[in-house]
């Protein structure tokens, strides 16, 4: 069998789960045995959640790219590793076999070396969804450089923040990126970002859109020219750097409830084992299947389930450059039809938006190749779940509603395709190795079934974050200090009569807009930077397509004369500071915000008003000035 650790039945799931709790080290050692190690580990796990200090497979030596590439060459050399579908359906697609990918990764790894990149250096990657993005990521991993991929929708300011935090020495980008009918000028955004980033010595630019770009002498280099240099050197092989199990593999920035985004750190061995294990099991991947995840590599889903999970399993992963609605709302179904896709992994927000176009775009598409469907990123409402099940899966494909986070590295709570009995809206059961626990506000365990609580995890798993880059204390306070000896997810959760888990959404000040994670404090800081703004408060409200929309209450210095123009100005500011994904959907100008006597904004009240629950504001007795609330209610949008 291709994957000896692949669960085959519900019984086997239960046995594996039991074993993973009774003997976690033995359980994970059995899985890890099926990877290629330069040197096996001395100890499977050392941990405490107090510092926190978590180490998996200590003493082990490996390189993740040898597991994603080299070890497949003998058996899968001619098998497609990446199938790439361009934004424009008229453009030729690309098929990259495992051998091609290996060669290209080695070649570009040599480019990085020629440009002085060494093990441990940080490399920022800001590219569109083209195969060169996967090649860049793997080339970094090959030489032990730590990649920090930044999603193409973030602004120059956001990129600069991330580059400075990581002290990246090199940036890999493209001239531009095609997304739907847009052409995003990536290099020009990078040029703006780099004004404040003296750590960056080189920028490698891959050609995609042929958008004119400025190339700075001594700093900026064309990807294609650099590849030619390696070719003139006779394409020397690029030996993989031997990495320690706990060496950093990558940093990925994500939003929290306070301050700037933090750099979540994942390390080599544990992340590899976990991304692979969860991919193979959740989707029940079978050799030869075509697997399509619609996420962007700029997010954790793309890292774990477009690149590392599938490639380490020798799977065929389909990478799509465009958006589900271009050139029409049938694009995803055309792709499924064109490549005979077997597994489709997407987000509720995409499903909801496509539902809105009716069945026209689905009809006449041959979706008979589909065997398994997946959902990720936000709670999936029952209507979307059923539409996905009935009209895409034609009633015969299991849906896996996978709950996890940037910090968890891989899927945590999910049905196993075709094995776990599913229930719409429920992520169902934890994968082996995952020990969820619900607690009340005081950290007391909420036991039994039919209960609600804050979702925590009480035992380490290999894919978990190890630190937040450059600030371990922030990692401790954010995730490990709320409840003693527990990892706190920030999510609320209920456990039903069957012991199934249903994620109810964030319990902190983090929004989930179209599956994108955004901190309310971040949006407020951006709004507050706009001239004339005194203070603002941002909350989420239910949005039919995006899941959550952003509602901003804004106090200005002077009365606003042209509210529509001022709103547009504020949106422009937010776009510039964070990126278009953080633009509020609604802005209401107010003269004050509801505060407690100690000066804390009462967000609960603002949330209720944004949700339209004007008559149900709850306890308002601690309000400093109740008149403010009446005014806000009158002006509700
Ligand atoms: O609130 C949960 C929600 O997304 C958050 C994690 O966001 P991020 O780190 O960007 O990772 C998204 C992709 C893994 C979680 O704290 N979330 C994720 N998956 C689900 C979900 N909420 C409900 N159901 C899910 N399946």
UniProtKB/TrEMBL annotation:
Gene Ontology molecular function: acetate-CoA ligase activity; AMP binding; ATP binding
InterPro entries reported for this sequence: Ac_CoA_lig (IPR011904), ACAS_N (IPR032387), AMP-bd_C (IPR025110), AMP-bd_C_sf (IPR045851), AMP-binding_CS (IPR020845), AMP-dep_synth/lig_dom (IPR000873), ANL_N_sf (IPR042099)
Domain annotation AMP-binding enzyme C-terminal: ranges: 522-600
Domain Acetyl-coenzyme A synthetase N-terminal intervals: 13-68
GO CC terms: cytosol
UniProt-listed Enzyme Commission number(s): 6.2.1.1
Biological processes annotated in GO: acetyl-CoA biosynthetic process from acetate
Record domain AMP-dependent synthetase/ligase: where: 75-460
Presence of keyword Acetylation: yes
Enzyme class at the top of the EC tree: ligase
Keywords: Acetylation, ATP-binding, Ligase, Nucleotide-binding
Keyword Ligase: yes
Family: Belongs to the ATP-dependent AMP-binding enzyme family.
Name of the molecule in the record: Acetate--CoA ligase
Organism of provenance: Chitinophaga ginsengisoli
